[in-house]
Write a structure and sequence with these properties.
By secondary structure, this protein is α+β, with helices and mostly antiparallel strands. The chain contains 15 helices and 16 strands. Strands 3-2-1-4-5-6-7 form a 7-stranded antiparallel sheet, covered by helices on one side. Keywords: Coiled coil, Glycoprotein, Golgi apparatus, Membrane, Metal-binding, Signal-anchor, Transferase, Transmembrane, Transmembrane helix.
């Protein structure tokens, strides 16, 4: 009983001590964790200071004042930052208004109409930068991005990749799908009702597709130009599409009537009557009989073999009833640039497409259409990459006989190569040639004049269409590099001569011919012994 009463009396004391201990610990924790001012030291109340309660109240009031001042300081800093940010924003808006950047798109998802308008503005700016409507000035001949060409079956490409095939069926699925999608979109555009004509519209199909060209610029997108058969002979439909790293956009849908578009084929010549005879056979079949909208200008240097050349022209004129030719004779040393320049300036008729050609070139009627379709006065000039034939004696040396010329003209890596270093065969309107200044007549002999003219076009605002074409061939002939050439011309001539003979593998077989024959001989001896 006594123990129970003592425990009851002792319990309030223990509770009081626990309360005092908890309060002391709370105060110490608050003083330790609360940040101090830079030069302020807080201390516990001393013995001679006011009561403990009053001391703690003074400390709490002091800390409250410090926090209040700190909050006021933060608010001032935030207000200053907001003001500075607003000023910078105004500066940026002024700069954007002064120098608009089409790439700076603000896609505000809360305003879908504005976001769509901004996106369309960006895509249109990509079209403008991609030389769809006009060309841009380029610094060198290497800056031009070439086009690739394609049909329903094959792609004719400069970038041959690991296969090294100048033409092939698209092996990669993404490339196949891409070209199929583009053709289908073009057909969809052609077959879309115009809402005006009541006549039953023609339905275009894939069989109406003639050819297309395309090129990809990494910072812009892919440009496609597709040509379809038109409603009548010599009429075509051209669809221009652009993929600006997103959906394909229709840029143009225009009718192209080439029925009255004449091509003046200009050929500079000196001697080489037998080659001219071969050229005229091609010209008669493709130019006169199949195309029919063509003129021939021959600029002849000197008098040797001149009568033979004139006789070939006259015979063709009589047999084919062809009167659209001009023969110009110059009594001076051969200069390709001078001959082409004289032939172009001699024309007195309306503006005409000029095709600068050589006597060792074979072209098809399809190429002549490509020449027309890829030139436009004041806008476009055409620099086709032709397919250069290897030496038939090397290519078909293991055959019983060399095939006919028509059978040799196939595009395969064993038979030739894309002559992407050559700029001599070109189509342009006469007005563009005259306005650009023509050829540099100081260049004599072989080589150099074509690159000079090509650079002029690149430095202008004209669009240069550079693409391999399946209907233009350079026929093999033995090349002679004359001593009269300058060192640079002679070097170019020898490089051309080396590339003309055969492929790398075929030349290797010739170089190691003796070793191969020795190996075969040993194999025969070994087989006899066994």
């Amino acid at each position: 009983m006594m123990l129970r009463r003592g425990f009851i009396l002792f319990l309030p004391r223990v509770a009081g001590l626990l309360v005092v201990a908890c309060c002391s610990m709370s105060i110490v924790y608050m003083l330790a964790c609360t940040p101090k001012g830079d030069n302020q030291q807080l201390a516990l109340p001393r013995v001679h200071s006011p009561t403990v309660k009053e001391g703690y109240e003074a400390i709490l009031l002091e800390r409250e004042e410090q926090h209040r001042n700190y909050i006021i300081s933060l608010k001032k800093q935030i207000a200053q930052l907001k003001a500075e940010l607003q000023g910078r924003t105004e500066q940026l808006k002024n700069m954007q208004n002064q120098y608009p950047d089409p790439l700076d798109i603000q896609l505000d998802h809360s305003k879908p109409e504005k976001a769509q308008a901004n996106l369309l503005a960006f895509l249109r700016s990509q079209v403008d930068k991609a030389e769809v409507h006009s060309g841009v000035k380029l610094s060198t001949e290497y800056a031009a991005v070439p086009f690739e060409s394609f049909t329903l079956q094959k792609v004719y490409q400069l970038e041959t990749g690991l296969t090294r095939h100048p033409e092939e069926k698209p092996v990669r699925k993404d490339k196949r799908d891409e070209l199929i999608e583009v053709i289908e979109l073009a057909l969809g555009s052609l077959n879309k009702p115009d809402g005006v004509s009541k006549a039953k519209p023609r339905v275009y199909t894939a069989s109406d597709f003639v050819e297309g060209i395309y090129r990809t610029e990494k910072n812009k997108g892919t440009l496609y130009e597709l040509t379809f058969k038109g409603d009548a002979k010599h009429q075509f439909k051209k669809i221009v599409l652009f993929r600006p790293f997103g959906p394909v956009m229709k840029v143009k849908n225009e009718n192209v009537n080439m029925a009255d578009t004449l091509i003046n084929v200009i050929v500079p010549l000196a001697k080489r009557a037998s080659k001219f005879q071969q050229f005229m056979q091609n010209f008669r079949e493709m130019g006169i009989q199949q195309d029919g909208r063509i003129h021939l200008t021959v600029v002849y240097f000197g008098k040797e073999q001149m009568n033979e050349v004139k006789s070939i022209l006259e015979n063709t004129s009589k047999s084919a009833n062809f009167k659209n030719f001009t023969f110009i004779q110059l009594n001076e040393e051969f200069s390709r640039g001078k001959g082409l320049d004289v032939g172009a300036r001699f024309w007195k008729g309306n503006n005409v497409v000029l095709f600068f050609c050589d006597v060792d070139i074979y072209f098809t009627a399809e190429f002549l259409n490509s020449c027309r379709l890829n030139t436009q006065p004041g806008k476009k000039v055409f620099y086709p990459v032709l397919f250069s034939q290897y030496n038939p004696s090397i290519i078909y040396g293991h055959h019983d006989s060399i095939p006919s010329l028509e059978q040799q003209l196939i595009i395969k890596k064993e038979t030739g190569f894309w002559r992407d270093f050559g700029f001599g065969m070109t189509c342009q309107y006469r007005s563009d040639f005259i306005n650009i200044g023509g050829f540099d007549l100081d260049i004599k002999g072989w080589g150099g004049e074509d690159v000079h003219l090509y650079r002029k076009y690149l430095h202008s605002n004209l669009m240069v269409i550079r693409t391999p074409v399946r209907g233009l061939f350079h026929l093999w002939h033995e090349k002679q590099c004359l001593d009269e050439l300058t060192p640079e011309q002679y070097k170019m001539c020898m490089q051309s001569k080396a590339m003309n003979e055969a492929s790398h593998g075929q030349l290797g077989m010739l170089v190691f011919k003796q070793e191969i024959e020795t190996h075969l001989h040993r194999q025969k001896l070994s087989s006899k012994k066994t």
